[in-house]
């Protein structure tokens, strides 16, 4: 047999590997045994408490003996509660099973288990206590009142409230998912996450937002210390009787506007929610049927309106219409007669949407379904509109949008005055200096099939107008287009436009917007096919 | 020569080995390193088993308890996590080594055992990812299981079987635990035994020429294997001191992180699916699995295995390397160059 000499490297390698492994293992064992893994000396407290039938295990008192703070100051007296009975995480949250400076106080992120300290601890009171004024929980109670006063319940479902809308995420268990800081952010900056959120930015102070967050943090799916029977009894949240202080002095109509949370968003005389349009004059801007029908189904009258549906009985509808009508009549006689100049009228009636400097970015513009037309720096657009069209828009409004008709509120002279002002102050270039409009493509002899129109739409239009034509295509959000692309499913608006108007927009684009002219790219047949497709989308017809 | 004392290990080893088999260049020690990882996984896993509870409410707390209060708890969890990932990598590298040396020639059955083990390793890593029941785990599993949906025929039943239903829930945790702590270890140990036994039956390591065995296995083969195992153990121990196994917040089914990424070894598929669901999710993965399963049959030669880049197998070896490298690139892109809404981020990790 061919006996070879064994390789020389095997044994040294083996010895070296063995030595290294033993060294590492020894070091680790030595380090682990000689050093305490937990930060404080002493034993780990391992407490199991019974929270409403659920055993909860905690190590908190290892570092916080008898509930003292990190600096050693003792836990305040919380009689009739007892720390020994309640444990720590029931109220303070955090991760009781962790013994680590970071994790045990709740990891950042959603902050669902972030520790509640000091004043924030009141966020836990209403987890078990029924919603009524409670000593020490004033901020959370104030948060609940604000929640109702600001009409959060008009959109967000919340278990226990007699009526709540179903237009926004359910907040019944929001306390299990988000921390207080995250809730404050969600209230104050609704568009941050998700970016397509339709929640308006409420004019709330930081403190108000925090109070609401303290209340919302108490909404959990599994409150501790509650037998199922107690939960059943407490299912309906009590609405405070004095939700709107001073409401006894209001007329029935005003009280209705307050009770139905209209004023939480809209302006009405002196009250201003700073979210929606001014209702003070709406009695003369809209018809009685419009006003009666609108709250029950806003999107039917203004496509894409963000207002939630507010259910009104027939009697309430009548009361609402009468109240708005009387109020508008009164203001027409008083405040509007005092407004002599066009400028005063503009500031009273137009600036809320079109902005004081006419750029279309008024205080509530962001909350409207369609951005108001800009006057300033938009001369090209107005030079393409005949004076008659403009007069008509001002007098009759623009169907399907928030633009009302002013025919009943303002006399023809005053409307002329307003139009003159728009051109003088914002648009420029003279009211009658119109540009000659190019010819529109004639209707082709042979129309393309409907399927071709759909295909063209999917090819050229969806980047801005979206696949279903709602005006929410990927580029609309990505490029932050202003004004936002037209919502083509807005039946009221599209139906009110003539074929020529739509054809002009498609063929030559819309000045002052991102809508480009398509004439070079598409031929007449294709443009007419697109027109047909837009008409189809606007009435929601199936292809 | 061999002494009169014999032990169990002698059954697994031949009496004599070739000098070539001992040389590091021949096998790179990948198989032994993988076996060491498997051993570490079994030992650490059995320890973790003492503390873990597959319950939606408790699992996360148990992990916190384990890692923060127990002596060596963090180390144990880190070691288990690292050994699991190392096993995955080593197994793939071992597969590549066998393919590149055409070691499967005449040993098709053992190639299939190896593939089955690779499948089990993936299953173990994937189910283990879920057990802490934190945000990372929950959403990675959500993405991973929806990737399974793209596979034709088998994909959906596989997903339902893994999740114990259409959606991730309490059943999923129990099922993942059962698969992770019972099915996978038993399967791996059994298959590993078969795998080793086949190597022994097939005459030790594949060699290109029929030279007779020259050296006594004892002590030389034992020492060489021992070196690899000890080095693997040392490296893993050192890494476990530095690298912490990730742990996120408690799982919250209502709040996905953006972007939600699959476990790293499936991020390559996620990246491919982001280009095309049909190509990236169905056709390419199916072809890859098919190719791996059929590789010993595609290369028709029966002999001449055991030499790096053995003639006759080079086109297939090239294809395999292309496949593995492209996966690496896709994984790197998915891990470091993808931000919210799977948007491109450059430079990597920025944004």
From TrEMBL, chain A:
SUPFAM superfamilies in alphabetical order: Cytochrome c, Multiheme cytochromes
Pfam families hit by this protein: Cytochrome_CBB3
Keyword Transmembrane helix included in the entry's annotation: yes
GO MF term list: electron transfer activity; heme binding; metal ion binding
Signal peptide positions (record): none
Keywords: Electron transport, Heme, Iron, Membrane, Metal-binding, Transmembrane, Transmembrane helix, Transport
Domain Cytochrome c positions: 138-220, 248-328, 337-426, 448-538
Transmembrane spans: 12-33
Listed name of the protein: Cytochrome c domain-containing protein
Phylogenetic classification of the source organism: Bacteria, Pseudomonadati, Thermodesulfobacteriota, Desulfuromonadia, Desulfuromonadales
Automatic annotation (TrEMBL), chain B:
Residues of the Cytochrome b/b6 N-terminal region profile domain: 1-208
Topology with respect to the bilayer: Multi-pass membrane protein
Keywords: Electron transport, Heme, Iron, Membrane, Metal-binding, Transmembrane, Transmembrane helix, Transport
Keyword hit for Lyase: no
GO CC term (a single one): membrane
MF terms in GO: electron transfer activity; metal ion binding; oxidoreductase activity
Database matches in PROSITE patterns: CYTB_NTER
UniProt xrefs under Pfam families: Cytochrom_B_C, Cytochrome_B
Keyword S-adenosyl-L-methionine assigned: no
An individual GO BP term: respiratory electron transport chain
Localization annotation: Membrane
Principal place of residence: membrane
TM stretches of this protein: 28-53, 79-100, 112-131, 177-199, 220-243, 277-298, 318-336
Name of protein: Cytochrome B6
Lineage: Bacteria, Pseudomonadati, Thermodesulfobacteriota, Desulfuromonadia, Desulfuromonadales
């Amino acid at each position: 047999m061919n006996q070879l000499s064994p390789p020389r490297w095997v044994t040294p390698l083996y010895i070296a590997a063995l030595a290294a492994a033993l060294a590492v293992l020894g070091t680790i064992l030595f380090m682990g045994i000689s050093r305490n893994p937990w930060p404080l000396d002493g034993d780990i407290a391992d407490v199991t408490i019974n929270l409403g039938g659920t055993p909860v295990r905690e190590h908190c008192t290892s570092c916080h003996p008898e509930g003292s703070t990190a600096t050693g100051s003792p836990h305040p007296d919380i009689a009739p509660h007892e720390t020994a009975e309640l444990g720590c995480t029931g109220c303070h949250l955090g991760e009781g099973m962790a013994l680590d400076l970071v994790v045990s106080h709740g990891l950042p992120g959603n902050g669902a288990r972030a520790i509640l300290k000091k004043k924030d601890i009141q966020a836990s009171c209403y987890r078990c206590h029924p919603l009524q004024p409670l000593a020490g929980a004033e901020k959370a109670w104030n948060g609940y009142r604000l929640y109702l006063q600001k009409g959060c319940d008009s959109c967000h479902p919340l278990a226990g409230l007699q009526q709540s809308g179903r237009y926004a995420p359910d907040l019944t268990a929001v306390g299990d998912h988000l921390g207080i800081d995250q809730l404050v952010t969600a209230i104050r900056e609704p568009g941050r996450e998700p970016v397509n959120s339709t929640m308006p930015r409420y004019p709330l102070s930081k403190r108000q937002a925090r109070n609401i967050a303290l209340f919302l943090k108490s909404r959990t799916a599994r409150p501790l210390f509650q037998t199922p029977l107690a939960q059943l009894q407490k299912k309906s949240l009590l609405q405070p009787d004095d939700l709107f202080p001073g409401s006894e002095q209001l007329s029935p109509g005003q009280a209705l506007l307050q009770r139905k949370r209209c004023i939480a968003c809209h302006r009405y005389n002196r009250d201003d929610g700073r979210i929606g349009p001014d209702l003070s004059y709406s009695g003369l801007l809209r018809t009685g049927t419009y006003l009666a029908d609108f709250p029950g189904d806003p999107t039917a009258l203004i496509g894409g309106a963000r207002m939630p549906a507010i259910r009104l009985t027939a009697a309430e509808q009548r009361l609402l219409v009468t109240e708005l009508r009387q109020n508008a009549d009164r203001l027409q006689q008083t405040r509007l007669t005092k407004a002599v100049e066009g400028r005063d009228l503009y500031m009273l009636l137009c600036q809320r949407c079109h902005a004081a400097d006419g750029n279309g970015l008024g205080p509530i513009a962001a909350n409207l379904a369609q951005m108001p037309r800009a006057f300033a720096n938009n001369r090209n657009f107005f030079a393409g509109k005949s004076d008659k069209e403009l007069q008509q828009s001002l007098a009759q409004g623009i169907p399907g949008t928030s633009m009302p008709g002013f025919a009943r509120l303002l006399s023809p002279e005053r409307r002329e005055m307003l139009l003159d002002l728009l051109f003088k102050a914002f648009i420029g270039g003279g009211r009658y200096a119109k540009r000659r409009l190019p010819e529109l493509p004639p209707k082709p002899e042979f129309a393309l099939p409907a399927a071709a129109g759909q295909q063209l739409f999917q090819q050229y239009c969806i980047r801005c107008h979206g696949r279903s034509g709602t005006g929410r295509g990927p580029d609309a959000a990505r490029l932050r287009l202003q004004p936002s692309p037209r919502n083509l499913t807005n039946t009221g608006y599209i139906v009110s436009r003539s074929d020529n108007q739509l054809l002009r927009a498609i063929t030559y684009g819309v000045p002052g917007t991102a809508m480009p002219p398509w004439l070079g790219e598409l031929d007449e047949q294709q443009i007419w096919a697109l027109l047909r497709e837009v008409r189809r989308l606007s009435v929601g017809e199936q292809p | 020569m061999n002494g009169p004392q014999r032990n169990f290990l002698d059954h697994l080893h031949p009496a004599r080995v070739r000098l070539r088999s001992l040389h590091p260049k021949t096998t790179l020690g990948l198989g032994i390193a993988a076996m060491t990882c498997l051993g570490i996984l079994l030992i650490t896993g059995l320890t973790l088993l003492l503390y873990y509870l597959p319950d939606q409410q408790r699992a996360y707390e148990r992990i916190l308890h384990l890692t923060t209060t127990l002596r060596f708890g963090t180390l144990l969890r880190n070691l288990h996590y690292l050994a699991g990932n190392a096993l995955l990598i080593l197994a793939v590298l071992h597969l590549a080594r066998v393919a590149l040396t055409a070691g499967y020639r005449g040993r098709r059955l053992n190639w299939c055992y190896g593939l089955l083990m690779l499948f089990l390793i993936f299953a173990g890593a994937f189910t283990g990812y879920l057990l802490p029941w934190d945000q990372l785990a929950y959403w990675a599993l959500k993405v991973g299981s929806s990737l399974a949906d793209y596979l034709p025929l088998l994909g959906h039943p596989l997903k339902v079987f893994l999740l114990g239903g259409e959606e991730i829930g309490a059943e999923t945790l129990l099922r993942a635990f059962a698969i992770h702590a019972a099915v996978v270890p038993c399967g791996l140990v059994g298959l590993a035994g078969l795998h080793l036994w086949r190597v022994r039956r097939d005459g030790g390591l594949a060699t290109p020429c029929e030279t007779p065995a020259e050296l006594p296995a004892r002590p030389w083969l034992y020492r060489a294997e021992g070196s690899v195992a000890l080095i693997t153990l040392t490296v893993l121990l050192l890494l476990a001191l530095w690298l912490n196994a990730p742990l996120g917040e408690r799982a919250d089914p209502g709040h996905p992180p953006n972007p939600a990424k699959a476990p790293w070894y499936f991020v390559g598929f996620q990246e491919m699916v982001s280009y095309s669901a049909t190509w990236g999710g169905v056709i390419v993965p199916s072809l890859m699995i098919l190719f791996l399963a059929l590789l010993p049959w595609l290369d028709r030669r029966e002999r001449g295995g055991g030499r790096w880049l053995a003639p006759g197998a080079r086109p297939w070896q090239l294809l395999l390397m292309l496949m593995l490298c492209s996966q690496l690139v896709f994984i790197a892109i998915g891990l470091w160059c993808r931000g919210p809404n799977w948007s491109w981020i450059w430079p990597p990790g920025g944004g």
